[in-house]
Amino acid sequence: MINGKSCRLYLSALVFMLILPCLTFAAGEDTAQLTFRKTAVSQKKSHPDAYTVRHGEVLSSIIRTIPGITEKDVPRYYRLTRELNPEITDIDKIYAGQTIILPTGLPDSGKGETNRAASRAYKIRKGDTLLRIVYREMGVTSRAWDAVRAVQAANPRIIDVNKIYEGQTILLPEGGAAILLAESPSAAGPAVPDPQVEKAAPEEAPAALKAEPKGAVVLPPAQRLAAIKHIITKMKGNMMTSGNYYLPVSDTEQLTIDCSVIPVVELDGRTTVFLDTASRSSTPLKKLISEHWKNYHLIKINDQDDIIIVLKKIFKNTPGYEISKAQKPLVAGSAPSVEIVTDWVITKKISRSSSHDMLGIRFVGPNDALLPRAVVNYVAGHSLAIVEVSPEKGIVEKPQEIYSLPPVVTLPSSPCVDFAWALITHLNIQAERNIDVRTFNIDQDGFNLSVKADISVTDNDRRTLVFARTLPEQFIEILQKTGDKLIFLSDDADPAANMERILKGMNLVYTTGYFNFSGPDKNQAPYHFGFMGTKIKTDKNIYIVNFDLNRELRGLLHETWEAEIVQY
After folding, report:
1. Burial class (CB in 10 A: 0-12, 13-18, 19+), 526
2. Residue after which a domain boundary falls, among 159, 191, 223
3. Same domain, yes or no, for 420 and 564?
């Protein structure tokens, strides 16, 4: 007979019939996904291998200017250029000012000749990673990371294999060329910098996020149970630590379990685990459960078990989950992507619900900084839950930050003259719109003739004129002879290209590239996040981006890095 004083388990029959209870605790449907690598995100700026066609140039002459090219290479490079520019219907009809992508940076000799001939263009899609690409597009089944390095070698502009961008065109070595490229000395060679684009300054490179995974801590029973319940709940499971739990045995009989003595964990609506926290259940009960209920399990929890051991015992009986030491930072989101160093990670093997796909556990000592709530909240919105555990207090978390922020400044991306005006005025540059500029004077030329400038900026007696249209050559010569500086914008151009023309034309200091913000650099917890954008150096740091930045992260940037975000 089972001890009723310890477990209050009541059996009302000696003969049991197998009845599988229909208990469902599934969450709503969702499609959230998360990987350890950064996925492809939108990038509107030109590919680093872009080339602007000059007046009178044809494709064959452009190809012959590529360093190391020979006549026998021209047909192959012609084909690759056509593949890299699928949007150009007739590659033989190019015009001055047009941007094309050239297959530069490939190996020039030796094994590279074979590889170069066996390459094809591929345009990166949303959600792509290089690892996925080599599996899916190249048919790689082994030595996958060699193939990834081969793709990087064939595309030297890829500085970080975890950072590729939607819409970017890359070359894929085909067949055995991947391994050959990976073994080529050029695979480790540095990328050639683009002289036309100023890249992010070296001091803004991401700080290394390295941390040895810490072991778990043994908490008092009450705190340990609370921590386990908190983690299970974060994974959208259910854990009952009070009341009774009923298992039907027959139409008239049931097994009643006191949840305050044997807590009950339910995950995925399929698996139920009973936690015997003090060895109070007898062997007959465990045998009874295992023989009659396939998805129900009874496990014993010892006093010396830390929370990781307890979780391992739970997930050992839950096929949809696994727990392991974190080998690399966990990544969530895309614009921006956030990386967090944790000690352990729980992953959901198959996700069919709105529950978190992944949960990171971070153990913190008395002198360790806690993660900002802005960071924790952001990744939680991208299917990554973070739990911090203290040996002294159990579950801990930093208080919610309250940021006092003005509304984000949004520049109109079109028309280009409105974009230019909004940018210039936001930078506190004194300017005028729709100014008549005289080009011919009646006293000197016998007649008056003026041209209207869309924007005029005067600085130290020098005038900069902005036009959203082209001017006749004679007008340009006259204006330049008088010392005026001219900036020409186009509604057909990407706003980023127009912005670069404005900033260059006005001699403003700016940087375009991928910017990283690291918590350890500011004596904070180990996290970092980054995004593509343009940084303008004025009396404050202004970052101009083409996406909506999360408000809490914007507040964190403003408070910690004194950064202002402007979007378009």
Report:
1. buried
2. 191
3. yes
Do 292 and 436 share a domain, yes or no?
A: no
The model's pTM is 0.60
262 shares a domain with 151: no
Q: Which of 381, 396, 411 corresponds to the end of one domain?
A: 396
Per-residue model confidence (pLDDT) at position 11: 33
226 burial via Cβ count (<10 Å: 0-12, 13-18, 19+): middle
Distances (CA, A) of 111 to 106, 154, 180, 185, 362: 11, 12, 7, 10, 47
Please check whether residues 257 and 342 belong to one and the same domain.
Answer: yes
Q: How far is CA 481 from CA 432, 484, 506, in A?
A: 22, 7, 18
Instruction: Check if the beta carbon of residue 567 is closer than 8 Å to that of residue 408.
Output: yes
Instruction: Look at residue 199 and tell me if it is in a domain.
Output: no
Q: Which residues of 261-288 are buried (b: 16+ CB within 10 A; e: fewer)?
A: bbbbbbbbbebbbbbbbeebbbeebbeb
Structure tokens at 339: 């990386």
Is 492 within the bounds of a domain? yes
Sort strands 409-410 and 330-332 into parallel, antiparallel or unpaired: unpaired
- Sign of the CA dihedral with 477 first, then 195, 90, and 488 last: negative
Would you tell me how many other CB atoms lie within 10 Å of the CB of residue 72? 8
Distance CA 565, CA 568 (A): 10
Matching residue, tokens 């970052």 = 543
State the residue range of the domain holding 268.
4-27+214-396
Please name the residue ranges forming H helices in 137-263. 144-154, 177-183, 221-234
Q: Which two tokens stand for residue 432?
A: 């005028």
Number of domains in the chain: 3
Question: Are 61 and 18 in a shared domain?
Answer: no
In a shared domain, residues 175 and 221: no
**Under a CB-based contact definition with an 8 Å cutoff, are residues 301 and 308 in contact?**
no
pLDDT in the model for residue 406 = 87
| Maximum CA extent, the chain | 119
Q: 302 and 441 share a domain?
A: no
456 with 483, same domain: the answer is yes
- Distance, CA of 48 to CA of 158 (rounded, Å): 9
SS (H, E, C) 48-114: CCEEECCCCCCHHHHHCCCCCCCHHHHHHHHHHHHHHCCCCCCCCCCCCCCEEECCCCCCCCCHHHH
The one-letter amino acid code at 43 reads Q
Tally of CB atoms within 10 A around 492: 10
Give backbone dihedrals phi and psi of 226, rounded to 5 degrees, phi first.
-65, -40
CA distances from 320 to 32, 237, 272 (A): 16, 12, 12
Residue 540 to residue 409: CA distance in whole angstroms:
15
**Tens digits of per-residue pLDDT, 146-174?**
777 788 888 877 877 777 888 888 888 86
Residue 209 lies in a domain: no
Tell me what the mean pLDDT of segment 18-47 comes to. Answer: 34
- Is residue 34 assigned to a domain? no
> What mean pLDDT do residues 508-522 have?
90
